[in-house]
Specification:
This protein has 297 residues and is an alpha/beta fold. Helices cover 36% and strands 15% of the residues. It is built from eleven helices and twelve strands.
């Protein structure tokens, strides 16, 4: 029996402690060694808004691939900083990404950038395609689109993976939509769920496999990396409730009524078409019904 230890490929990663990144590390930690660019790193904290720190960290890494997950993702909080280029949202989502782009250009790294369906305005009735023109209507989506533009206009080898409303099988400190619904059903605190708002859930366990595929094969371009399905909040909630035999009531909410009390724009549909990436992958993505069954309550 060969007792030699497996030599792991080194990957530079941002946001590896987050909702999505931590699942990737959990599932693929046996294959990869991670050079983490993280402000919360216990021994070597790195702020991605610090160009010199990013450049130095990437220059020292033997990694050929950078996976950029870190972002300011609180949409409501981002709206409070709209048009403020000195604010944390812009600094992290735009300037932080530009710092990573410049270092990747200098040191010849392939960049996998995680983006969002919020680059679209949400007025489409159908699933958004990669060829559809982004028209962000709020600050979070705008900063993510500015980051995408910087990548597209760079001299890098790159890919952009757009996701929407990610959820994972296991609970996490940052609670995802699926586990919010589960928690709300269990303690009867669930707010009404819209039956006229549409989104395309992303199963993070599958998305981790997509990142692994992109590291190994390094395709180029923009890809929608979601389930490729379109759900209302209400139907998604009912699916979770029925799949796990949860008690508690789900009330119907009305997006139009909610918008009257909201002071920021709100997309009506963020569901993404995933045919492009599905035709590329060498494995099949779970349907949302299959994925929901894997959720640990």
């Amino acid at each position: 029996m060969n007792n030699q230890s497996i030599i792991k490929q080194t990957i530079v990663g941002t946001g590896l402690n987050g909702l999505v990144g931590s699942k990737f590390v959990q599932l693929f930690g046996n294959q990869y060694q991670f050079d983490s660019l993280d402000l919360r790193h216990p021994t070597n904290p790195i702020d991605i808004t610090d160009e010199n720190a990013v450049n130095q960290a990437i220059s020292k890494s033997s990694a050929k691939v950078v996976v950029h997950l870190a972002a300011f993702t609180n949409v409501s909080a981002a709206w409070e900083q709209r048009a403020d280029k000195t604010g944390l949202v812009y600094q992290v989502n735009v300037n932080g990404t530009k710092n990573i782009i410049r270092a990747c250009e200098v040191y010849g790294k392939y960049l996998i950038h995680i983006s969002t369906s919020y680059v679209f305005d949400g007025t489409n009735d159908s699933l958004y395609l990669e060829t559809d023109t982004p028209k962000p209507i709020e600050w979070y989506g705008e900063t993510k689109w500015l980051a995408e533009e910087a990548i597209i206009n760079s001299k890098l080898n790159w890919s952009i993976l757009r996701i929407d409303q990610p959820f994972r099988s296991d609970p996490f400190e940052k609670i995802d939509l699926a586990h919010q619904i589960i928690s709300g059903l269990k303690d009867n605190s669930l707010k009404p769920l819209f039956n006229n708002h549409f989104f395309g859930p992303t199963f993070i366990d599958d998305f981790a496999k997509i990142i692994d595929y992109f590291i190994k094969h390094q395709p180029q371009g923009i890809y929608h990396a979601t389930s490729g399905e379109k759900w209302t909040d209400y139907d998604f909630g009912q699916l979770i409730k029925n799949a796990h035999n949860l008690s508690g009531q789900i009330k119907v909410g009305d997006l139009n009524q909610y918008l009257q009390s909201l002071d920021r724009p709100y997309q009506r549909n963020t569901a993404l078409n995933n045919q492009k990436i599905s035709s590329l992958l060498n494995f099949k993505l779970h349907t949302i019904k299959e994925a929901v069954k894997q959720i640990i309550c």
